[in-house]
Structure formats: structure tokens, C-alpha cells
């Protein structure tokens, strides 16, 4: 049975709106599923990112003449050393904080009394003051400090599992290059976007590490100079929170500011907040984003939303690894498919390509297509008219030339 002329075949593709709804529903289900296994997924992702960051060390050692087994052993030791050193440093610092906080009990009572007197002098009723200040205690402040540090330390909560996964990944990485080369022959586009993810993640981690060290050294020196206790702990906290985009600075500021309040009163707390704001604004808000934009190429809005999303899905580790995880998802879901690559460009931080003002005009190298689907020759004539259409086009050009 023939189809009437001008009637196209029914499309088997789903409507785009339905495809979008199904895609969003699928991502939501996947996120909730990952959240249920966050205790396993989070350490595994952290180990993967650490191995990706440290793996170039194996190649560098091999180029210096070391045998493969020794180069791999050194790389594994470096990965495990990083994890253990951060975990031990946090454990010792939290223990030290727990021992010095009780010494500020009298100082805290004095601060509360001064605050009550100040509020009463400006006309605030004593009942309201008492109701507000009864909610504040040294235990509350200690609990706030402990929650912030415990949230960061939760990164290393499943330490034994994290160590084993990192060690096995580092060992498997030795023969991964040959497997990648075989896969590249069959799926070059997929391997290309994975290469982009690996390179972008390494650059981002390198930039965040360098600037985190700079911020940590400056903060430790300043806190030691003004006399805030546990300056090394707050420097370590500033270093780790530098990996948390957008809000890491605020998380790293709260504990030293509160301890400065207990140590030297409101004046010292204001000095710490002001100095932290100036230091971190210059380094993290002016200098660092210029380098991060080239490495990760994610807009500020996407970075902030990824921070919230990954923290919700896998916990505190998601906040630290928000950018690498977003780069991985972006590569696998958007960059790998030419039909969705335009969506990836909407997430980029840099300016888009210049708009082609002649994009609406048909190209001189591509034939136009008529409503019936048949190609149309240059000059708008149907090729079915043969040489007559071409002849009329030539006559028209001659007349224009004579005019």
C-alpha cells in the first residue's frame, strides 16, 4: 500500500518533553540508589580521585629508570601516606581541642554576662535576654566546633576500607594503560571524554592543592601572630575546605573565629574574621577562579549546585569531590554523545563561541531541501527542471551584470 504524496512516515521517536521527564526521573532514582550505598561509594570515589591525582608519579619514576614494581610501590605508599597523615592529624587536633575547651568556662561566663548587660542597656527586657542566652552555652559552642570537624573527619571514617580500595586501585593502574589503548581502538569518543575528565580533575586538584597550601600557610601565620590557639589545626582545616567550592571558606572560618572570641573577646574575633575575609577573598575569589575556570570549565552556578547535590548524595566527601564528580558525570552523560554535547556547553564557565550572523542563510556548499524532501539546486530551482532552471539562473546573472 503506497502512502499519499506529501505524507511523511510516522516517527518512532519519543517526544522530547517525555524524554526529558524520563531522564530526570532516571537521574533521581540513580541518586537515591547511590545515597543508600554512600558508605561504600564515597570511599571508593575518594580513592579513585586520589589514584588519578597521584598516578603520574609512577610514570615520572619509570622515566627516571626505576623498575615498575618499585615505582608502583612508591605510588601506593604516597597514596596511603596522604590518607593516614590527614586522618591522624585530624584525630590529634580534635583530641587537643577537647582538652583546651574546658579552660574557657570562666571566660565564657564573663562574655555572657557582658552581653546581657549590653542588651539591657539598649532597652531589651531581661526576660527576652535570659530566654535567648539560655540557649547558648560552652557545650553548644563545643558541639558546633565538634560537628564541623567531625564532618570533615567523616571523610576518613571508613579508613580501613579506604586504604584497601586505594591500594588495589593503585596496583591495578599499572596495567591500565594497555587496557585503555585497546578500548580506545573500539570506542575512541568514549575514551576521549574520559581523558578529558582525568586531565581536568588533575588540573583542578593541583590548583586547589597549591592555593590551599598558600591559604593554610598564611592563615597559620596570622593566627599564631594574634595568639589564637591550635593555629595548625585551623590551617589544616583551611587547606581541606579549599577543595569545597564556594562555601569552603565559611566552614574554615567558623571554628577559629569562635575560639578567638573565647581567647580574646569580640575584638579578636572581629580581627580574625576581617583578616580571613581579606586573605581568602583575594586568593580564593580573585586569583584562584581564573585558574580553576581553565581546569574545570564549570560555571559558578553549576559548581554551587553540584556542591549541594553531591553532599546530599554521598555526604561530606561529596562536598570535597563535587567538582571532579561533576566533571565525570558531565563527560559520561553529555560530552560522550554528539546529540547532547550542546547541553555541555551550557554548563561551561567561559564565553561561548561567537554567534554566526549568517547561520540562518543556506550554505553555498550544501543543497537546499524542498518541502517534499527533494534537493533544490542553487538559485532555488528544482533539479528536475534540468538545464532550463540553470539557464534561467545564468540569464538572470548576465542581466544583473549588464545593469
Overview of the structural elements:
With 403 residues, the protein is mainly α. The protein has one domain (40-172, 193-346). Helices cover 74% and strands 1% of the residues. The protein contains 17 helices and two strands. The protein has helices spanning 16-36, 38-54, 56-63, 68-100, 105-121, 126-133, 138-153, 159-172, 176-186, 188-226, 231-241, 248-295, 300-314, 316-320, 322-335, 341-346, 387-402, and strands at 368-369, 375-376. The chain has a two-stranded antiparallel ribbon. A hairpin with a 5-residue loop joins strand 1 (368-369) and strand 2 (375-376). Helix 2 crosses helix 8, helix 7 runs parallel beside helix 12 (248-295) and helix 11 (231-241) packs across helix 12. Residues 352-403 have low confidence and may be disordered.
Helix-strand layout with pairing:
Blueprint: H1 16-36, H2 38-54, H3 56-63, H4 68-100, H5 105-121, H6 126-133, H7 138-153, H8 159-172, H9 176-186, H10 188-226, H11 231-241, H12 248-295, H13 300-314, H14 316-320, H15 322-335, H16 341-346, E1 368-369, E2 375-376, H17 387-402
Quick summary:
The chain has 17 helices and two strands.
List keywords for this structure.
403 residues, mainly alpha, 17 helices, 2 strands, globular, disordered C terminus
SS elements, strand count = 2
Gap between N and C termini, in Å?
54 Å
What form results from the Cα inertia axes? globular
Strand order of the biggest β-sheet: 1-2
- Spans with pLDDT under 50 lasting ≥5 residues? 352-403
Largest sheet: 2 strands, antiparallel
User: Would you tell me the overall average pLDDT?
Assistant: 74
Any idea how many domains?
1
User: What are the secondary-structure elements, in order, as H or E?
Assistant: HHHHHHHHHHHHHHHHEEH
Structural class, from secondary structure content? mainly alpha
Content of β-strand: under 5%
**Count of runs of 4 or more consecutive helical residues:** 17
Radius of gyration: 31 Å
Q: Percent of residues in helical segments?
A: over 70%
Amino acid at each position: 500500500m503506497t502512502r499519499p504524496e506529501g505524507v511523511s512516515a510516522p516517527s518512532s521517536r519519543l517526544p522530547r518533553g517525555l524524554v526529558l521527564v524520563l531522564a530526570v526521573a532516571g537521574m533521581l532514582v540513580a541518586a537515591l540508589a547511590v545515597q543508600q550505598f554512600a558508605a561504600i561509594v564515597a570511599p571508593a570515589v575518594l580513592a579513585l580521585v586520589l589514584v588519578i591525582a597521584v598516578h603520574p608519579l609512577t610514570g615520572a619514576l619509570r622515566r627516571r629508570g626505576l623498575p615498575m614494581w618499585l615505582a608502583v610501590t612508591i605510588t601506593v605508599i604516597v597514596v596511603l601516606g596522604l590518607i593516614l597523615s590527614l586522618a591522624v592529624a585530624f584525630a590529634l587536633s580534635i583530641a587537643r581541642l577537647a582538652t583546651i575547651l574546658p579552660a574557657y568556662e570562666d571566660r565564657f561566663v564573663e562574655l555572657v554576662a557582658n552581653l546581657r548587660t549590653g542588651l539591657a542597656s539598649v532597652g531589651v527586657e531581661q526576660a527576652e535576654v535570659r530566654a535567648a542566652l539560655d540557649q547558648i552555652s560552652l557545650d553548644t559552642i563545643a558541639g558546633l566546633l565538634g560537628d564541623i570537624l567531625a564532618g570533615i573527619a567523616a571523610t576518613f571514617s571508613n579508613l580501613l576500607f579506604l586504604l584497601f580500595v586505594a591500594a588495589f586501585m593503585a596496583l591495578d593502574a599499572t596495567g591500565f594503560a594497555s587496557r585503555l589503548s585497546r578500548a580506545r581502538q573500539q570506542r575512541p569518543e568514549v575514551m576521549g571524554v574520559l581523558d578529558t575528565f582525568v586531565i581536568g580533575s588533575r588540573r583542578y586538584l593541583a590548583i586547589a592543592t597549591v592555593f590551599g597550601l598558600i591559604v593554610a600557610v598564611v592563615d597559620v601565620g596570622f593566627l599564631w601572630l594574634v595568639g589564637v590557639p591550635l593555629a595548625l589545626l585551623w590551617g589544616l582545616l583551611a587547606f581541606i575546605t579549599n577543595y569545597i567550592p564556594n562555601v569552603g571558606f565559611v566552614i574554615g572560618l567558623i571554628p577559629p573565629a569562635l575560639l578567638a572570641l573565647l581567647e580574646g573577646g569580640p575584638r579578636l574575633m572581629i580581627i580574625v574574621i576581617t583578616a580571613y575575609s581579606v586573605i581568602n577573598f583575594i586568593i580564593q575569589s580573585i586569583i584562584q577562579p581564573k585558574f580553576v575556570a581553565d581546569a574545570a570549565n564549570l560555571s559558578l552556578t553549576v559548581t554551587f549546585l553540584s556542591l549541594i547535590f553531591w553532599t546530599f548524595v554521598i555526604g561530606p566527601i561529596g562536598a570535597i569531590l563535587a567538582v571532579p564528580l561533576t566533571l565525570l558525570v558531565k563527560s559520561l552523560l553529555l560530552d560522550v554523545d554528539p546529540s547532547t554535547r550542546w547541553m555541555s556547553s551550557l554548563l561551561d564557565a567561559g564565553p561561548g563561541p561567537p554567534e554566526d550572523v549568517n547561520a540562518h542563510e543556506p550554505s553555498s556548499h550544501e543543497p537546499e531541501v524542498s518541502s517534499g524532501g527533494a534537493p533544490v539546486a542553487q538559485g532555488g530551482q528544482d533539479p528536475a527542471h534540468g538545464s532550463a532552471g540553470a539557464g534561467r539562473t545564468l540569464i538572470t546573472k548576465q542581466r544583473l551584470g549588464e545593469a
